[in-house]
Amino acid sequence: xxxxxxxxxxxxxxxxxxxxxxxxxxxxxxAYLQWYRQDPGRGPVFLLLIRxxxxxxxxxxxxxxxxxxxxxSLFHITASQPADSATYLCAxxxxxxxxxxxxxxxxxxxxx
Amino acid sequence: NAGVTQTPKFRVLKTGQSMTLLCAQDMxxEYMYWYRQDPGMGLRLIxxxxxxxxxxxxxxPDGYNVSxxxxxxxxxxxxxxxxxxxxxxxxxxxxxxxAGETQYFGxxxxxxxx
Lengths: 112, 114
What we know:
The complex is a heterodimer.
Chain A: E1 4-6, E2 10-14, E3 19-25, E4 32-38, E5 45-51, E6 56-59, E7 62-67, E8 72-77, E9 86-93, E10 101-102, E11 106-111
Parallel strand pairs in A: 2-11
Antiparallel strand pairs in A: 1-3, 3-8, 4-5, 4-9, 6-7, 7-8, 9-10, 9-11
Chain B: E1 4-7, E2 10-13, E3 19-25, E4 31-38, E5 42-51, E6 54-57, E7 65-67, E8 73-78, E9 87-94, E10 104-105, E11 109-113
Parallel strand pairs in B: 2-11
Antiparallel strand pairs in B: 1-3, 3-8, 4-5, 4-9, 5-6, 7-8, 9-10, 9-11
């Protein structure tokens, strides 16, 4: 079965630095890979998705890369701010009629 | 638009009691999902529905039942609650799956089973 792993349970970073979160998967490459943000006590909120044939996607201070050879996606937040502190989840969006497969998430803390 | 709403927000049950969690969406989405989220375990899919009147099992379906009698509602039932079902439950919906469509999540229901 498809497995997904976010390599860090928690990541602490200083304000202004670039945060990099990693998402690795096994077996087949997804058609898309999605990233969500979850704040404490709230449901996840969609941030970005990247297609299988895209190498990079940007949205404001966010950048996602997708390497199907390495079976890995990287999620970058540049010029990080304390307001970026949250848990970030990646999800595999496989072809066909199957639900998303979510990673366990990485809890990011941006320290002022 | 309210998006995805969940009722109740918080509930305490005694072992053996039953309850139903209600999820409603106003986006006309075909797909609806129930997840549970536990510390260190991430989001785990319990059951999902690909349309009105259809349901399917997810990763952790045991001890739960679901029904989708109306397109906008997805009910999650616990027939005989156990302490292992203490968790935060999230409902989500999407227009499709496997095609780059995102999921929209509700605010969650915190359930404590004593």
